[in-house]
Amino acid sequence: MGGFFRNKYFVILVTLFVILAGVPTILSAMGQRDFVRDIGMSALTPLLRGATALGSALRGYADYFTEYDRLAAENKQLREEIDKLASQKTDAALYEKENAWMRNYLGIKRIHPDFTFCDANLIGASSGKYQTSMTLDRGSLHGIAVGMPVLTADGVVGKVTEVGLTFCRVSTILNYDSSVGAYVERSGAVGLVCGNFDRKAEGACELRYIRFDADIEVGDRVLSSGLGSVYPRGLLLGTVSALSGDAFDHTRIAVITPAADLAAVSRVMILTSFAATEAEE
Questions:
Q1: Could you count the other beta carbons within 10 Å of the beta carbon of residue 116?
Q2: Angstrom distance (rounded) from CA 192 to CA 205
Q3: 14 φ, ψ to 5°?
Q4: Looking at domain 116-273, which of 3.40.50.1820, 2.70.98.90, 3.40.50.740, 2.40.10.350 is its CATH number?
Q5: Alpha-carbon distances of 107 from 99, 113, 153, 222, 281, rounded to whole Å
Q6: Over the stretch 224-262, which tens digit does the pLDDT of each residue have?
Q7: What are the phi and psi torsion angles at 171 (to 5°)?
Q8: Residue 94: what pLDDT?
């Protein structure tokens, strides 16, 4: 240890320290305070510059995170407002759909005040684009019985063929075993609207057993005649889209496009009671 203090490097360090410590004092005593201050400031300037830069950087980081938090809060608020507006838009669309449904329902009630309806929702359907059968969420607990007509505001869908406690099954007018007494609104020509196996793929059925010389044209509306006790008279079945002849029995066949959209129906009205007309009796 004693050797270290006698080491030449130690002596040099002590000498430099004494000189550095004494120089400012000597210069101050000689009236060179400004010079001493300049030297001190020159030595401290890099440190001060670094401290200033560090402080600016820290403030910048602080400002960045403060701004980030503000923007994050603002974005959250905007997302909540967008979600709220989207929900309001969805609700408005549902209300409009419900209002349209009620307007259509009331329109039918004005035309047929004797009709009593039970509304129902589709819960199952046959495969394919056009539905030949469907299942509804109404059954015997709701007063539904086999044979009741099923409608939309546009026209006839079909009739109830099976009933459970809380559901029923419906055969549409596209089904091959469906038949409805019908007449042409414009001319009164009568026939029978029947389902056809080949036609159902295109969403159509046929008006058969029309006299060969009957007055019927493409575009004519076809209504239920009321014969057969299932459908009341005057319900719209569809429109004539094509005509052909039957060479075997000299009658005409009309292709009928159903008035009800059997590719998109989701809500219907089950006609639970109606007053029979003379034609129906």
A1: 14
A2: 10
A3: -60, -40
A4: 2.40.10.350
A5: 12, 10, 8, 20, 26
A6: 999 877 899 999 999 999 998 776 778 899 999 999 999
A7: -100, 120
A8: 52
